[in-house]
Write a structure and sequence with these properties.
With 321 residues, this protein is mainly β. The protein contains 3 helices and 22 strands. The radius of gyration is 29 Å and the shape is elongated.
């Protein structure tokens, strides 16, 4: 699929007096206007529903009714439905355990023009060409199915526009249609903000004390899938629980207060990398050495007892837009 920012330049069509025009000339003119319009759409809008495309379906219904609407995909192409359309519910009985199956209803641009057909004229043997109505393509995508991975990527990239999500049981709607998952072609004027507190698995960089101190990182990064960001947001994060550590000395435990410096890197829509540094200089001139802290942290990371395992949580929020 071409990039949504790709620009395709074509020549502006010009005509001269007395020139004989062929179908290809008119098609070239239409192509120029279309490409300029799609470029405009890509530059000023995001993929999504611009107007209409209301989806109606009550519990127990065997089909959905999709109202006329206008949407734009990632390439700036217009998806236009001029008349109401009825789309049957996927013929699925369930997930095999008596539970409903989730499906997303999508709409996409049809790159194939409908064929012309010739129809007779009343009271005459003559016929004339009739252009059939151009329609967008509707498609059901099963949520969580490995077989639908390619279609899911097209939804995420904006090549397919998600209109609604349904639960299907016994070949009919198990609940009312949900449109909470769809997005608008016109971005909100307000930024999208999502915050959470994540539990992660910690690891020590190089499994040793570094030149500057102990650097810990969240193994595998911090997942932000629950936020549903579409682009890499600005992330802000800090440790919630890292204020003290228990260190054993001569059979007794001492509580040592510590300070950490956090770092965020590799921000992506679905995750970011997070690490913290416990500086070596904090323990200069104290009864606690950096090696004592390192030993205590490593023991807690490797402890099999969940109650004793290092469970520092990360508070974070992302701002998109």
């Amino acid at each position: 699929m071409p990039s949504s920012t790709q620009v395709r330049f074509i020549d502006r069509v010009q005509f001269a007096d007395g020139q004989r025009l062929l179908a290809s000339d008119l098609q070239s003119l239409e192509e120029y206007q279309r490409e300029m319009r799609w470029l405009h759409n890509r530059s000023l809008h995001q993929p999504g529903v611009a107007s209409g495309f209301a989806v109606r379906g009550e519990k127990g219904a065997p089909a959905l009714v999709i109202e006329p609407g206008y949407a734009i995909d990632a390439l700036g192409r217009e998806l236009v439905l001029a008349e109401p359309h009825t789309e049957p519910v996927p013929p699925v009985a369930g997930d095999g355990a008596g539970n409903p199956v989730l499906f997303d209803l999508t709409v996409s641009y049809s790159a194939t023009l409908p064929e012309s057909e010739r129809r007779g004229v009343s009271c005459s043997n003559a016929t004339h060409a009739v252009r059939l109505q151009e329609l967008p393509v509707f498609c059901w995508v099963r949520v969580g199915s490995p077989d639908a991975a390619s279609l899911r990527r097209q939804i995420e990239s904006g090549e397919r526009i998600l209109l609604a999500r349904v639960e299907v049981l016994n070949c009919q709607l198990h609940q009312r249609v949900s449109i909470a998952q769809r997005r608008n072609a016109k971005p909100s004027l307000h930024p999208y903000v999502f915050a959470a507190c994540s539990q992660v698995t910690w690891e020590i960089e190089n499994n040793q004390v570094g030149v500057h101190g102990i650097r810990l990182r969240a193994a595998g990064g911090v997942s932000t899938k629950a936020a549903g960001f579409r682009t890499a947001p600005h992330y802000f994060a800090s440790l919630r629980d890292a204020h003290k550590i228990e260190i054993e000395r001569g059979g007794s435990q001492d509580t040592v207060l510590i300070e950490t410096f956090a770092e965020i890197s590799n921000p992506k829509p679905e995750h970011f990398d997070f690490s913290v540094l416990i500086p070596r200089f904090l323990f200069n001139g104290t009864n606690t050495s950096i090696d004592d802290v390192f030993k205590a942290i490593r023991e807690r990371i490797e402890d099999e007892d969940e109650g004793k395992k290092l469970a520092w949580r990360i508070e974070w929020f992302g701002v998109e837009g």
